[in-house]
Amino acid sequence: MRVRLEPSGLGFETEAGTTLLKSAEAAGIEMPSSCRNGTCRTCICQLVSGAIRHVIEWPGLSADEKAEGWILPCVAEAQGDLTIDAPKAFSVF
């Protein structure tokens, strides 16, 4: 599955069972993060297109935020190709 980050245009591959944050890091892309368990909201991004599944039942998002497309990449897995608005993401290479 392919993930594209906006507005940078950076991208990376991910697979089932791997969080978006871990996949980004493996591809040399840094995204803000802290707790890595879905509570601190440091990594919050907006899903532009595609579908994700949070690996914990109720991550640190309100029902309204979920409805508006906000996700927590530290506990989210792709369900197919995605585009995410992640303005603070950057390549370390």
Amino-to-carboxy terminus distance: 21 Å
What is the CATH domain class?
Alpha Beta
CATH superfamily: Beta-grasp domain
CATH topology: Ubiquitin-like (UB roll)
Structural domain tally: 1
Q: What letter string, H or E per element, gives the SSE order?
A: EEHEEEHEEEE
What's the average pLDDT?
95
What is the CA-atom radius of gyration, in angstroms? Answer: 12 Å
The computed structural class is alpha+beta
Count of beta strands: 9
Q: What percentage of amino acids are in beta strands?
A: 25-35%
CATH architecture: Roll
Task: Tell me the strand order in the biggest sheet.
Answer: 2-1-8-4-6
Description:
- This protein is of the alpha+beta class and 93 residues long.
- The chain has a single domain (2-91), classed as Ubiquitin-like (UB roll), CATH 3.10.20.30.
- It is built from two helices and nine strands.
- The strands form three sheets. It has a five-stranded mixed beta sheet with strand order 2-1-8-4-6.
- Strand 1 (2-6) and strand 2 form a beta hairpin.
- It is globular and about 35 Å long.
